[in-house]
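Re: export button greyed out
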Amino acid sequence: MTTAIPEILAPAGSLDKLKVAILYGAHAVYVGGQKFGLRTAAENFTLDELREGVAFAHERNAKVYVVLNSFLHDKDLEELPDFVSFLDEIKVDAVIVSDLGVVKTVRQLSNIHIHISTQASTLNVEAAKLWKKMGATRIVLGREVSVKEAGKIKREADVEIEMFIHGSMCMAYSGHCVISNFTQGRDSNRGGCAHSCRFEYSLDMGLDTEEKKKAFFMSSKDLEGLRVLPEFINEGIDSLKIEGRMKSHLYAGTMSKIYSEALEYYSQHGNFLSENLLEWEAELKKVSHRAYTEASLVDKAGADSIFNEREVSNDSEWQMVGAVVEASPKTGIILEVRNAFNQGDELEFIPFRGKAIKVQANEIMDIAMRSVQRTRPSTLARLPYVEGIGPYHLIRQKGRK
Amino acid sequence: MKYLTFAQNLHDLNLIKDQGMTEVILGHRDFSRFGKLDDENYLALATRAHELGIKVTFEWDILMTENVFASTSKKINEFLETMDSLRVQDPGAFEWSLKHTDKPLQFIAENGNHNLLGLKGWIDYAGPRMERIVLSIELSKNVIAEYIKELLVPCEILGFGRILLFYTPRNLLSPLTSEKVALNQELVALGESEESPHKGFPIVENTHGTFMFHIKEFCLLEYRDDLIKMGLDTFRIDLRWEGLSYLSDLNNLKENYPKDLMRGFYLVNKTDVLFPKLKNSRLQKREGDYVGEILEAEKGQHLAIMVKNPKGLKKSNRLKIIHPKGEVFEVQIHWLKNTALEEVESVEMHKLALIPFINGVWVKSHVFYLDNEIDK
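Workaround output, generated via the alternate export path:
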């Protein structure tokens, strides 16, 4: 007997990341076009890439949701209809929307399913009911809602529910932070967030001493909900979202793989073994992240959910050394090198399913088939062929920060 | 144009009456982000306001997750008789109020809601129950004028007061103090960041979470004539932090007020103009005639292109290559190789193609068909 499980919804900041996420097990991905999303600095998708991405996903029974979750101003809204018509034509599975004007525009022009973005901070049954009446088929709840509350919202509002399970978190209620707007002239709710919450602040708290408290007091730890998976399943949550369209291929692949494998295991066995959880958690920690918290998934986020540390670009012992771009017995494995590695280093190929394959890089060649001792980033390298490894497989290495 | 403000005690009500105001916002501490009134004080103020002929608007602007919402919303029934209008922000509170009360509603549309279509949607949804809509302070004057004209309900904007920048339900200040924080105790701080020239952001933690405000307060006093001409219904003055005594001399409030003031985006909102600079636009042109991306540039040897166009790459193709910094190279391919280093006539999509090295071209350069240019 198998248990019904939620969808794993992965971020895809580019077409390559979409393919990585789906090949590594994501049941759905969310992507952004060149406008209307909240990640202005992301690579995002051209129209051709959206078309290709949707086709790629649908061929593999995966879904594609397109973010239109900026708080659009009137002049932005004027440009939306053509894009919505295009999305309808290429048969995207849903759009993710924050603003009632966008909801109305999408409904007028198409039959595309509408998911209400977390940016709308939907927190309770009544809000979910309202958005359902407005035409929403799914609500992405605010990150402040617990899984138990989410289950109640689903039952009483009778609408699909999506919750975040992993990734960076806004400290503020989503859509309720305008620090960037007023201090940097960048509209955070149209994709210009300057991440002011991650800055260190000196705080004068009116204490007797003149010394000010220095703290990263507005910075949140990253969400990690692996151990809460049974609660998500028991409450009938429809979709579990992984944050991070700006993050790496390694992130998109690893998160998609671990969460989808964990869910599949649960669907087959009805439980998790602690050894499985430890193994999956170890895998999650191999990707750069802030300290993890379950935030408000179980109880209201407390003081231990604050990440009172300076940001680091990579705090993981592991790093991605490259992604496979071509592979065959004739040509070997050709990878795009992201981080240098040496002849003799131990590498791990991450298969789409199952445990990592350890390979000693005893023989490295460049694309012209000359032997090299050490690879360089932004070059191509050849490794001997490994059965089962092909394009979009990721390769990582321990201990080379 | 009406003036509107908050009262926190009986003295405030008298000042409001003295100014000839006809409406007051009362903030109960279970419903209002900065409300300090408990049941007894709220009822006393509401009663007194009515005695003074002042209409009472009950503020419900706390965002509530389901458990809190379910338990708190029922409590509103205790105050229904004492309020003339209900003012809500959360769509859930909006929906609940429409279903469970018969009070006129004021909808706070201050976060987002920057398009007419959406605003009309909220108004249509509430129907005749919508008494007033509170517009965002991020709207510029031209937009405010248009909205006042187009919307069929009275509009309100903040005319004077603190600018709320950030609202979280988490307690962010209390973890930084070793002192025990009492129930309903408010913690305050002034913050400055290393990354910003702004100093002295007021920060407040109370039972509802933590709030950060701009170092300057918002002031449209000098634009009141414009706003009257536009037909603005309500000009809200929020003096909850510095005290309502400043209300007595509205014409000199700006000069007398102890804080720096700003008009925000009233004249113009250009908070999207920097967006094109946030990414390399030259690398975004990947439509139509896009061939692919250079993954390796081996000096004197070859360029390796990942072909991403269904048409593939042919030896006969003339190419345009755009360097990430914008330099453009136009080339005719003399040879084309696959990854087995075999000379070939064409390379299909999703395969690597090697072409002769071109001085100046580097990794991440984008390659386009020159013969079929669409997007220059």
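The radius of gyration of chain A is 22 Å. The button fix ships in the next patch.
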